[in-house]
Write a structure and sequence with these properties.
heterodimer, A: about 270 residues, alpha/beta, Rossmann fold, 2 domains, two-stranded antiparallel ribbon, B: about 300 residues, nine-stranded mixed sheet, five-stranded parallel sheet, 8 helices, 15 strands, about 30% strand, elongated, binds flavin-adenine dinucleotide, binds adenosine monophosphate
């Protein structure tokens, strides 16, 4: 079979929020990090590679600019993809593609796969990202490539040119069987990604990286949406730490506080 | 002229989506799964219903595609369910449509729709403007159920067979608790070391008249609780008057599900756990030591 493509999003880190004085999000000030569940996708790819063979190719599109300011973060996320188990990385960074909404991302990534990994056996994405959390990139790419799509995989097994997937739906698990090539989105439950070892990190530096721009791919994409405002949600909680000499005292103080709030009906 | 297409798998999803869709213009409905069996009730709201047998995402995709091509609606609206996300993201990809999920507000215009949704794991709100045609998947309970009366037509829609075979369906063991309606919720997280230890949380919950909910790993990964106890951005969104989080770190994806609680209490042994910044009352303690004491004190109070 062919190569396994894993999409890796350099995502804005929600734990490093930055706001402007007017309460809107300072996107340029927020660093990028390796998107959480993409780590599960790479881990799944490593398992599947044992059966499917081929290489694991990570594809990253920089979604937040400006490119000049993001190069260090992008390099770190790429290194992490390679350290976690990708054999090669294709990195697309281009100011004309920013900010990368889902129409742009799906077109650019589908085109990248067609041109650079035409033999892909399997394309793995995460169920959703930590910044935009739209979970629609997998379905879009499957439709563009004309491949079957299976979402929310809790397990994937490869048998020959077939995969068997446990798909999570709210009240049931559907066991699905598809022929390759296919696109699959993975859940956080699919595995427990291991952090890369020192050796893996060192080896990552020697693995091939291919850099692409929009003109290399020869595509222009029309935007279908525009951002109007990104506003920080302020949590106005009391943040009172209840202290005391003994746990008994703390428990009593807590019960008293909750009674005062009128939220205990005991 | 039809201007919106509602897609849904249950009666409740469809009625709420119809209210949103009617803000855009005349709606029609694609009803699949359980909703297909409720086609008459939906049609009695005065809307035309296309009834799809089954709920395979391949078929929902094909049916939505057919109706989209024939009727050219300005928007497609439904709930942010897994089947809707799956099927409609493919339609979005095929025609390069804007698609928004987990939407909490819409303002339809003549040639565009403005919507609001969470951003940065719901620590921020994004307000965006999409040109028609667009796909808008809303959150539960943002809109009231549609109550118009009338007599709509019901048409069966046949789109052939799926590309991917479902070879088996395993029903999840759900508890049937309705966390959305609970007044008090005790939330359990990975601070608990094993399943049996959850009895501490259940004992506390019983004293308080509370329900027990959980972070995602406890319910979905370890399966220590049924999956309908899963609270958060990808689980249930709850709004109790009191939420007591025990051994939960306070990841934004969890807190997104509890931020509408009136009072949040956090019990965590790590004083730098992010949850303390998002709680009203915090107790820095080992849950194994503190929760039994809390239970004892509550019992004493009850006996008085
Ligand atoms: C796209 C996406 C969607 C997600 N959706 C959800 C969702 O819907 N819901 C959800 O919950 N998560 C969700 N997550 C996962 C989320 O990011 C966190 O990983 C998860 O919420 C962590 O669960 P936890 O707090 O139970 O565990 P941990 O983060 O491991 O926290 C355990 C806490 O317990 C404390 N602790 C340990 N021992 C003790 C003790 N003896 N006494 C007291 N405290 C102790 C620790 O200090 C720690 O703070 C999602 C993630 C992603 C990327
Ligand atoms: N810019 C990107 N580069 C690579 N992969 C992406 C990108 N955007 C989204 N993806 C993939 O699609 C998943 C869902 O993203 P999202 O639609 O943002 O929730 C991510 O977890 C990635 O696997």
């Amino acid at each position: 079979m062919g190569d396994i493509v894993v999409l890796v999003k350099p995502a804005l880190n929600p734990d490093m929020l930055r706001s402007k004085p007017d309460g809107t999000v300072d996107i340029v000030g927020i660093p990028l990090k390796f998107d959480d569940i993409d780590a599960n996708a790479i881990e799944a790819a490593k398992e599947l590679k044992k059966n499917l063979g081929g290489k694991i190719i990570a594809v990253l599109l920089l979604p937040w600019g400006p490119t000049a300011k993001r190069s260090k973060d992008l390099r770190m996320v790429t290194q992490e993809a390679l350290a976690r188990g990708a054999d090669e990385a294709i990195v697309i960074a281009d100011d004309t593609l920013l900010p990368g909404d889902q129409v742009i991302t799906a077109n650019v990534i589908a085109e990248t796969i067609k041109k650079h990994v035409p033999n892909a056996s399997l394309i793995l994405v995460a169920e959703a990202s930590i910044d935009q959390t739209t979970g629609q990139i997998g379905g879009r790419i499957a439709a563009k490539l004309g491949y079957p799509y299976i979402s929310y995989a809790r397990s994937i097994k490869a048998e020959g040119d077939k995969i068997v997937v446990e798909r999570d739906v709210e009240d049931r698990i559907e066991i699905m069987e598809a022929r390759l090539p296919a696109v699959v989105s993975v859940t956080q439950e699919i595995n427990e990604p291991r952090p890369p070892t020192l050796l893996q990190i060192r080896r990552a530096g020697k693995k091939p990286q291919h850099k692409l721009s929009a003109s290399d791919l020869g595509i222009t994409v029309e935007r279908k949406k525009e951002p109007l405002e990104y506003r920080i949600l302020t949590v106005s909680r009391k943040q009172i730490i209840i202290e005391g000499d003994t746990l008994e005292e703390i428990a009593e103080k807590l019960i008293e506080a909750l009674e005062k709030e009128g939220v205990l009906s005991i | 002229m039809v201007s919106s297409l509602v897609v849904g798998g249950t009666l409740g999803e469809i009625l709420e989506s119809l209210t949103a869709a009617s803000l855009v213009g005349e709606p029609i409905v694609l009803a699949y799964g359980q909703a297909a069996a409720k086609a008459e009730e939906i049609a009695s709201r005065g809307v035309k219903v296309f009834r799809l047998n089954g709920e395979h995402p391949d078929l929902i995709f094909k049916a939505a595609k057919k109706l989209f091509e024939e009727l050219k609606p300005k928007v497609i609206i439904g709930h942010s369910t897994k089947n809707n996300r799956d099927a409609l993201s493919r339609l979005a990809g095929l025609y390069d449509l804007a698609m928004a999920t987990d939407v909490v507000k819409i303002e339809p215009g003549d040639d565009h729709i403005i919507y609001e949704r969470g951003f940065l794991s719901e620590r921020a709100i994004a307000r965006e403007k999409a040109s028609y045609p667009a796909i808008v998947l809303i959150n539960q309970k943002v809109f009231e159920p549609y109550s118009a009366q009338g007599q709509g037509e019901i048409v069966d829609i046949d789109v052939g067979t799926p590309d991917v075979q479902i070879v088996e369906i395993k029903k999840k063991q759900l508890s049937g608790i309705n966390l959305e309606e609970a007044e008090i919720i005790v939330g359990v997280g990975r601070g608990f070391k094993k399943k049996e230890d959850l009895k501490l949380a259940f004992e506390l919950a019983e004293l308080l008249g509370a329900q027990v909910g959980a972070s995602r790993p406890i319910a979905a990964d370890y399966k220590w609780l049924p999956e309908d106890a899963w609270i958060g951005i990808s689980g249930k969104r709850v709004a109790p008057k009191l939420y007591i989080a025990i051994g939960i770190s306070g990841a934004p994806q969890h807190m997104a599900g509890v931020n509408n609680s009136k009072i949040i209490v956090a019990i965590n042994k790590d004083k730098s756990a992010p949850i303390f910044k998002q709680a009203d009352y915090g107790v820095v303690a080992d849950l194994y030591q503190f929760v039994p004491v809390l239970i004892k004190k509550l019992k004493e109070r009850k006996e008085k």
